[in-house]
Amino acid sequence: MDTNRKFALTRANRQFALVAVPAPLQEPLTYAVPEALDGRLEVGMRVLVPLGRRRVTGVVVGFQRESPVTGVKAVSEALDDEVLLDDAFLKMCRWAADYYVASLGEVLATALPPLLRTESRLVVAFAREPDSLHGELDREVLDALSRRGPTTPAALSRRFPRRGVKAVLDRLAAAGAVTVEDRLRGHVREARRKRQPRSETTAGAAAPSRAPVRTEEQEQALRSMDQRLSQGGFETMLLHGVTGSGKTEVYLQAMEQVRRQGRQSLILVPEIALTPQLLDRLEGRFPGEVAVLHSRLTSAERWRHWWRIAHGAVRVVAGARSAVFAPVRELGLIVVDEEHDYSYKQEEGVRYHGRDLAVVRGRIVGCPVILGSATPSVESYHNARSGRYRMIELTRRVEARPMPRVQVVDLKTRPGQSTPEGLFSTPLLQALQENHELGRQSLIFLNRRGFASFLQCWSCGFVLRCPRCSISLTYHRGRNSTFCHHCGFRQRKADACPECGNLSLSEVGFGTERVEHELRRLLPKARIGRMDRDTTGARGAQERIFRSWEKGEIDVLVGTQMVAKGHDVGGVTLVGVVLADSSLNLPDFRAAEKTFQIISQVAGRAGRARQPGRVIVQTLVPGHYCLDHARVHDYPSFFATETEFRRELGYPPFQHLVHLRLDGTDEDKVARGARDLGRALRGENPPAPLEILGPAPAPIAKLRNRYRWQILLKGRSRPALLALARRAVALMPKGRATRIHVDVDPYNML
Ligand code: ADP
Ligand code: ZN
Q: Among 202, 488, 672, 686, which has the highest number of CB atoms less than 10 A from its own CB?
């Protein structure tokens, strides 16, 4: 042990612990280390500390010899007896706190599963009814436990204040009526049991499988990664491969190589529920060694996985955005699949980007990062072009399968004849009928759910709106109701206009429910399925629909972007896009990029097996460049046109953005707060030129009864932008009803 470290460990230097707590405080708080914990605390351990009148879980991030203030409170309890969060992990969290203008405690609260943030590691549970009971309080406590399930002693003490719950629990435990378990130790034990039954890891029971013979391009790609994978060191590689070119196979073999080095891999996927096939393939190649983190885990399951990962009991960790915080210790590779996907962006709390944090983590840990996509984000492709990332390309589909043929149909000159709204033009309808007669599968995509986009009275023009949001309500016929797609507000459909009373409410626009309805009419013999948020609410529903689609039990599948991602179903030979424009008209500088990506991705579902694929895209703007380039699968040309426009208007990747949103329940106060803040920010003297746009009301001016205003900061210098964003937070009056939300590199400015 070197002398520095020995010195740091002496008691004098560890009188006080710096603890990051889950609150928007810029600095960690100082707590005294009580004698009982002398020598037991390390950086990266969780502790229970008093905060105001509560006790919260914090993480020790440092020690101090002296306290900057007098009368500090003491650490209440240590929750770990080994270091849980290593230096690299804390470094990543610190980076995220700086970059996303949050506190370290807030980032840690985002990074750790909820059970790791609870107040105690002891869990009390009802065991059995004892032969006799000591008194009334024992009865009450036992009833509470059997009725409400396991809880912590601290929570019980709060429910029965000043009544000596500890003594009660001791008595009940002695009588065998309750169990008191130390969750930490229990789960460490469990984590150390090396292998878990497969059901513990991935959902499907995939058969073990072997790698196929590489295609020439896969061979080249893997050979070029070889040295980096075996020797380690940070490097970001952009794997740009057309749909069906075998990118996933490249990830799998790269991960196998890392496994041979005795290291672990982390693979991020956009939405875990959308990728059952990828999970099957992972499980097939790493049987019993995969942990999957996804949003539908119960908190106990999530907690158990977390411990198994932290103790190296798995070789591969797969998960959505938040898995970037998985406590992988021997990290040898990070893969971000479909790196362009918007679901990597967290849209509340600490608004981080999972892909960007993955790259940061790779740099901190010193391991390679593979970003894969058929339609890379403009930012990543720009980085690869400029040499910051290494570009690796797969230009052909596996087994020389042709790319699907894409036909763009102008709805203005070939309006739909079968339905008044022109849902299906003649070419699309004919193709659907032919494909069905040949016994093949068709996919129909529309990025909007519901039956009608809104209801409008044709007597007085009134549109049904959400009472809580400045948004029209979408009509869902199956549930005979109108819904707000932003806050979930529901109202039964009325026959009469609430404004004028006439029976003249009419349906305007359409969504996937309407498309399904029309398809049943037009193709009465076909088996039709629908996959969108309305049909996949129940646990497992989405996977069920997907499995029957995969087995060929559905002839035509209608869906939102859920059907566009990653699926590899060989029988699909026709893809129809009902209206490509629906994402083009959003007030968003990424609208063209989003549309190009979704059209390319959904088109990529066609013709992945022996039969070639065909794609029909309906639109009102057939000449738009993003459709032109998507039609011929030409990403570089799309990138060239798109970056020209971005450069001219000063959008990313040429300049950077920070979006500030103010919201509150009082419309005038929010407006005033935004104007005051705008004025104050303009009075600041940033170290580099920045643009301040706004304040202005947000495009969605009211959401869940809160009024919203926004200010956009724009500039070339990230440090200057972040400094100004921090000033904005500091300038907000404290404790007022108007809140500020900072979004660095924003994706959604509605
Ligand atoms: P991508 O991720 O680029 O869309 P995949 O890795 O899913 O492509 O590959 C597309 C299809 O080709 C899959 O069915 C996959 O099993 C198969 N495949 C991939 N690589 C090979 C190979 N080298 N030989 C044969 N089939 C392959
Ligand atoms: Zn609403």
A: 202
